[in-house]
Amino acid sequence: MNKYLILAFLLFFPWVIFAQSNRVGNIGQRTLQLQDESRHRPIVTEVWYPTPDSLQKSDKVFSPFIRRYTVRNGRLPTGKRPLIMLSHGTGGGRLTLEWLAQGLVQNGFIVAAVDHWGNTYENKIPLEFLKPWERPLDISFALTALLQNSEFSKVIDPQKIGAAGFSFGVIRL
């Protein structure tokens, strides 16, 4: 038993060192209050990104879904970076995948997650649960807004955009 444990540790340990080597320092976080006027729905979007700024005491807000604290409204990084759009599951919310967003940011990505209006833990409207076609439209709207944003357009590589989701959030991507 012990030799298997040692073997597993030796196989895993180099991977841990390698995985940590490309990590960025601090994680910035912003909340964008977007409004899709054509569909009469708010698209609240959370964006995480590498930031050169330092963590302040006021940035330490507890959430059960975080891996580490973030710098609220920190400066954006320099250079273009890949973007991942996140879609939460039914009854979830933009912050439920924060653990995944932070892991991606630590490896150089910018990550944006939207609240699918009417289908979150804070805003449950049963009729909206039956409109799965709204989800990709929410993602598309937020993506367009980010690419047209004067700040984010400078740091997002439009040739490197992907999407991920959880449960119902991945079915409609």
TrEMBL record:
Highest taxon of source: Bacteria
Organism: Adhaeribacter arboris
Lineage: Bacteria, Pseudomonadati, Bacteroidota, Cytophagia, Cytophagales
Record-linked Gene3D superfamilies: alpha/beta hydrolase
Name of this protein: Dienelactone hydrolase
